[in-house]
Design the sequence.
């Protein structure tokens, strides 16, 4: 089995685990009283994060994704998601906070990891929005 086949096999296994995780997350979101539309948005955002970004170059499980938020929202999402906007970056940040709060409540991540994730989002949001503005400005050649 070559490296690509091994990678694909690992990704398949993680996607199956993520499906169960997303179902549990959906139930958790429903228990908080959010609207169906809001729940759908959060699930879509998290599905993209755990099944696209965390498996893009490496094979990273959702529980290990708390420290990848800066690279995701500050660079990768801006470049890869055609729908990247200020509101979509903020929406993804909210979804990630909810998802990892859920993960913490289930005992799947440490409270410290959740605290660090929330701190990163709070501190880095202005920079991410600035990066998006520079990326969208065609007169700027060297965004990063």
Sequence:
């Amino acid at each position: 089995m070559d490296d690509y086949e091994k990678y694909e096999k690992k990704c398949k296994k993680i996607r199956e685990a993520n499906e169960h995780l997303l179902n549990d997350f959906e139930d958790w979101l429903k228990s908080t009283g959010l609207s169906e539309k809001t729940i759908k948005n959060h699930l879509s955002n998290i599905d993209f994060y755990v099944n696209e970004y965390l498996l893009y170059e490496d094979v990273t499980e959702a529980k290990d994704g708390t420290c990848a938020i800066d690279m995701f929202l500050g660079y990768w999402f801006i470049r890869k998601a055609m729908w990247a906007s200020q509101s979509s970056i903020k929406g993804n940040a909210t979804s990630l906070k909810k998802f990892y709060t859920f993960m913490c409540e289930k005992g799947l991540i440490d409270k410290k990891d959740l605290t660090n994730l929330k701190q990163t989002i709070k501190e880095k949001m202005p920079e991410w929005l600035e990066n998006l503005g520079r990326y969208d400005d065609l007169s700027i050649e060297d965004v990063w």
